[in-house]
Design a protein that fits this description.
The chain is an alpha+beta fold. The model has no long low-confidence stretch (mean pLDDT 96). The strands form four sheets. Strands 5, 6, 7, 13, 14, 15, 16, 17, 18 and 19 form a ten-stranded mixed sheet that branches. Strands 1, 2, 9, 10, 11, 12, 20 and 21 form an eight-stranded mixed sheet that branches. It is built from twelve helices and 23 strands. The longest helix has 20 residues. The protein is globular, with a radius of gyration of 23 Å. The structure holds flavin-adenine dinucleotide. The site of flavin-adenine dinucleotide has 39 residues, from helix 1, strand 18 and helix 8. Flavin-adenine dinucleotide (FAD) binds next to helix 1, strand 18 and helix 8.
């Protein structure tokens, strides 16, 4: 890839927000680059969340959150077909077990109607339990929202980014933006590995969007992270929930949920805990215990035995003048023209992302970015083929075409060598073990990589032509091997 001398547009941050925007704008005759400090897409909050495409009843009417959530939800299904990522419209329930919770779901119902959420209704506990037989018999009523859906957030981010790359967007990885200055109508973006210039800049740096604004002197705000921990359960208990099951929201968040994932696991969580550091993604014994206790109110059969992994993500909670700001910050800066802030994109940012992209396109248009449709825009991305999800007939065809589909590397998730090689060599290819994991699911099963990790490391080493000691878990210096235990062994 040849870096352009001046890009029409530079987007900072390759999470779901930066990637959906890059993909939408890649349909126009523009030179666009996406600048990311990590070595892959979806390394920030977009890789660690509930993966829910919310129906849209949570946000206050009249907010950007409410508008873009409902619109984003409506856009996702079509996008999942064009870009080949998993999307399941399972619908969601918010369950009520006492008078206070009944009032809470009634208020959500009213809010949902004002926000224009299609098909919502409150059903009796009896009706609810017919749909969710493993749920607590104490549930009195539930708010049903048929449009709520689930996706894999990193699969979707990868799909948007890959299609953007196929349509000409340049991706710069491991290029942390360290300085930003506007000189004579051109932005000079100082990165760890050289400068990039652009006429328009969009700040989609998630938890770090406040720092990018500060660099260029745009509106000041601060992001204070709030951690959400999760427990991931094995696929063998997937029948415990058929839909997305929320408890009523609290002041801290949307309430603990129990949800199927697109990969057939059950996910429970999240907690909501303010933390100091923007990198504090560890999980805690207290958090894990708390999630199980609270989730058992919805599904009493849940136990620690079903857990196969835990993880956490950080909500980008925005503060302006020391006061929490209860909406997304989406604006062209009043002072720094042609600089756009997409800050404080906390939940429902994943659900809202495609609608946020549309809104930003319109802002860019108003600010003078010329949007002329390309004749050769490729709207469709070839879906990634998951061997485990193929029918017997399709599996045989895959093996005939490429015998590496017959070599199972990850036995828990039935991931083949062919898939791992394809993930490494795709337009936005996996660079490390976590990159392979997010794309193929290898290492995501019961053994969590205990058996397959060395084989995957060998494949990355061979395909990327790097030594085994250069193979990392997730970039930087997270190398998995330190050296040889005995001399003379290759
Ligand atoms: C616990 C939890 C649960 C959630 N559940 C849901 C849900 O179910 N549904 C929903 O709709 N939303 C949910 N959300 C919200 C959703 O995850 C976020 O709104 C969304 O992921 C934000 O995406 P983003 O692209 O803005 O941020 P990120 O994904 O964090 O992307 C920002 C990118 O910018 C990069 N970056 C930062 N600084 C720099 C720099 N200086 N130079 C270059 N690159 C930089 C980062 O490395 C990162 O890749 C949840 C969030 C959390 C934490």
């Amino acid at each position: 890839m040849n870096q352009k001398s001046v890009y029409d547009l530079a987007i900072i941050g390759a999470g779901i927000i930066g990637s959906t925007l890059a993909r939408l704008l890649s349909r126009y005759e523009l030179s666009i680059c996406l600048i990311e400090k990590e070595n892959d897409v979806s390394c920030g909050t977009s890789k660690a969340n509930s993966g829910i495409i919310h129906a849209g009843y949570d946000a206050w009417p009249g907010t950007k959150m409410a508008e873009y959530n409902v619109r984003g939800n409506a856009l996702y299904e079509g996008l999942s077909k064009e870009l080949g990522f998993g999307f399941q419209r399972l619908g969601s329930y918010v369950v009520a077990q006492n008078d206070e919770e009944l009032k809470s779901i009634e208020a959500l119902f009213e809010r949902g109607k004002k926000n224009g959420v299609p098909g919502i209704e409150i059903i009796s506990g009896f009706e609810f339990l017919k749909k969710e037989p493993h749920a607590s018999p104490d549930i009195l009523a539930a708010l049903w929202a048929p449009t709520a859906a689930i996706i894999s957030p990193y699969e979707a981010t990868w799909a948007f980014a890959e299609n953007a790359a196929e349509n000409g967007v340049d991706f710069f990885f491991e290029r942390e933006v360290q300085g930003l200055e506007k000189v004579a109508d051109i932005f000079h973006i100082k990165t760890g590995k050289g400068n990039i210039q652009a006429r328009f800049v969009v700040n989609a740096a998630g938890l770090f969007s406040d720092r990018i604004n500060a660099m260029v002197g745009a509106r000041a705000f601060s992001i204070r992270p709030r951690r959400g921990e999760y427990v991931l359960l094995d696929t063998n208990v997937k029948g415990l929930a058929n839909s997305i099951l929320f408890q009523p929201p609290t002041s801290a968040g949307k309430g603990v949920l129990v949800t199927p994932t697109v990969d057939g696991n059950i996910l429970i969580g999240p907690t909501a805990e303010p933390v100091q550091e923007k990198t504090a993604t560890e999980t805690t014994e207290k958090g894990q215990r708390n999630i199980l206790e609270v989730a058992k109110r919805t599904i009493p059969e849940l136990t620690k035995r079903f857990a196969i992994n835990s993880f956490s993500g950080l909500r980008a909670t925005p503060f302006i003048d020391e006061k929490q700001y209860a909406d997304f910050i989406i604006e062209e800066d009043a002072e720094v023209k042609k600089f756009f802030t997409l800050g404080g994109i906390a939940s429902p940012g994943l659900a809202a992302a495609p609608a946020i992209a549309e809104a930003v396109r319109d802002l860019l248009d108003t600010a003078g970015l010329v949007l002329k449709e390309k004749k050769d825009f490729k709207a469709n991305r070839k879906p990634f083929v998951y061997f485990a999800r193929a029918s017997e007939e399709e599996k045989q065809k895959l093996v005939r075409e490429n015998p590496l589909y017959a070599r199972i590397i990850c036995r828990c998730e039935m991931v083949t060598e062919a898939e791992i090689i394809k993930a490494i060599h795709s337009p936005i290819g996996a660079m490390d073990l976590d990159g392979v994991k997010r794309r193929t699911r290898a290492q995501m099963g019961r053994c969590q990589g205990g058996f397959c990790l060395p084989r995957i490391a060998e494949i990355i080493s061979r395909e990327r032509a790097i030594s085994m000691t250069e193979v990392s878990k997730s970039g930087r210096s997270s190398f998995v091997l330190q050296g040889k235990t005995r001399e003379g062994i290759e």
